[in-house]
Design brief:
With about 220 residues, the protein is α/β, with parallel strands linked by helices. About 30% of the residues lie in helices and about 20% in strands. The chain has helices at about 25-35, 60-75, 110-120, 185-190, 195-210, and strands at about 15-20, 40-45, 80-90, 130-140, 145-155, 170-175, 180. Helix 4 packs across helix 5. About 35% of the residues are buried.
């Protein structure tokens, strides 16, 4: 882990929240979803933390909890960590907790999408049901994390569509909208996504924490 010697010091009344991700897409989404709170949002790179917490567990809940505790203890800050996954019924819930590693540790989004589509090639439309799940863990140093969850139901499309978003967004089809997640601008995605639904719940917890006392 590499940490800058003298990170910026906020005013005493300002509470900092560490968004514990190296994924710029997640960082942008979460920053937008939490923008109305009186918090200074920072990320791992702001603190010079390049070390990635391992995700050794077999559930989204346990991985989110582990990451939140890991980074809260190292930073001394309130920390928000999440673990998200695409669960495909025809694949027995895969890729699920292994969504980011489904096509190997060095695969990019296109490679992961290609693997899913190959495995789903013979699956008819009614059986292509899937869901995005997001578990957010909020941790304060020295305290057990609080977990919340959001989910969004949909289908696995037959081919990628759209240029917005990241991850599996281009093949996640939302029947109510007639579009894939990657065809939705960020503002619209942030109204319906699994991460948005989890973030709304997380926001209420953060409001309660803020009401308990002054910032750092």
């Amino acid at each position: 882990m590499s940490v800058r010697m003298h990170p910026p010091v906020p005013p005493k009344h300002e509470r900092r929240l560490l968004i514990a991700t190296h994924n710029p897409g997640k960082r942008r989404e979460l920053a937008a979803l939490l923008s109305d709170l009186p918090l200074r949002l920072i990320d791992l790179l702001d603190l010079g933390i390049s070390e990635a917490a391992e995700e050794p567990h077999e559930s989204l809940e346990d991985n989110a909890r582990w990451k939140a505790m890991f980074y809260a203890e190292r930073s001394g800050l309130w920390t928000l960590a999440d673990d998200s996954g695409l669960e495909i019924d025809a694949l027995g819930g895969a890729p699920g907790v292994r969504s980011a590693r489904f096509a190997g540790p060095d695969a990019d989004d296109r490679m992961r999408i290609r693997k899913v589509l190959e495995l789903m090639a013979s699956v008819p439309w009614p059986q292509r049901t899937a869901r995005f799940r997001c578990v957010i863990a909020l941790a304060r140093p020295g305290e057990p994390p609080t977990l919340v969850e959001g989910r969004l139901e949909g289908y696995v499309a037959f081919e990628p569509r759209g240029t917005y978003g990241f991850g599996y967004d281009p093949i996640f089809y939302i029947p109510e909208l007639g579009k894939t997640m990657a065809e939705l601008p960020l503002a619209m995605k942030n109204q319906i996504s699994h991460r948005a639904r989890a973030a709304w719940k997380a926001r209420e917890i953060l409001r309660q924490w803020l009401a308990e006392g002054p910032g750092e």
